[in-house]
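ok so I'm stuck.
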Amino acid sequence: MSSTEPRRTALDATHRALGATMTDFAGWDMPLRYGSERDEHVAVRTRAGLFDLSHMGEITVTGPQAAELLNYALVGNIGTVKPGRARYTMICREDGGILDDLIVYRLGDTEAAPAHYMVVANASNAQVVLDALTERAAGFDAEVRDDRDAYALLAVQGPESPGILASLTDADLDGLKYYAGLPGTVAGVPALIARTGYTGEDGFELFVRPEHAVELWEALTRAGEGAGLVPCGLSCRDTLRLEAGMPLYGHELTTALTPFDAGLGRVVKFEKEGDFVGRAALTEAAERAATQPPRVLVGLVAEGRRVPRAGYRVVADGEVIGEVTSGAPSPTLGRPIAMAYVDAAHAVPGTAGVGVDIRGSHEPYEVVALPFYKRQK
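replied:
not stuck anymore, here's the structure
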């Protein structure tokens, strides 16, 4: 395979046999949809969907100073993460710009690996994160290992997902909290079972060896037949996360923004001991945000039918007041929706007179608080 060809997951043949429309995503050949992306979206909201997320980037960090390294390299306080738990965090540049948003799992400690972490990066940034962690590890008694080829990642999302997974494992799913992970066996396959999600629904992620991916996919498909489980592609994953108000790197998060610009300053833990990359710049960004609010990330709901796209200008009284970062038709709301950064003066939910410039026409939009959708627990 030439270096210009996209990489393929262990489930590539399965996706093609199911008739998936494939697309190049961050250098991977991934399923965009299998049939109707709207039907896949609705299945996750009402029943369950099965995703192949093997393009995500897993990086293992071990060693006596693994926690210290991660505390220095990332903005969160990883030292306080207990074994079996996970934390959402970010890795920033020295100037505070966001390199990626991450989930860090602290895996069960062993004698061989008293501090054992798995960092999961977005596919588009996996190499950038790996390079940054490797460079920042200098001087720490810790090892950074590229484990992208060691895992396939399947996700079962939706209200029926706990029942489907429970039929295949004796792991304690009831005791598995949100943002936690535990080792277990699913359909006879050794797996790290996690509960994080990126759809706004309950669900599970299953990290397994690539050679076990097909048998696990097939077992989950059989177990979910009676519950309405369907295979789902990246297209409905995008509309699901958009409804749930979850940021996507390259859209709501970029190197041009700090976590404070993105309204996610809570992930930056200044109270942790020692220096961390970007501390000085982020301290200034926090002070700026407190005194001069930057553009604010808001939700926009269309009054008409035209769909806004990333990069479209948000306008009010003939002035440009912001920019759309993500937009799509919302199957749940039945109307087009968008996330956008707008001037603070126009960010209050219910603000009148806001529109989106769609090819020269200023289409009316309602400013709403995020998320657009929140599941009933």
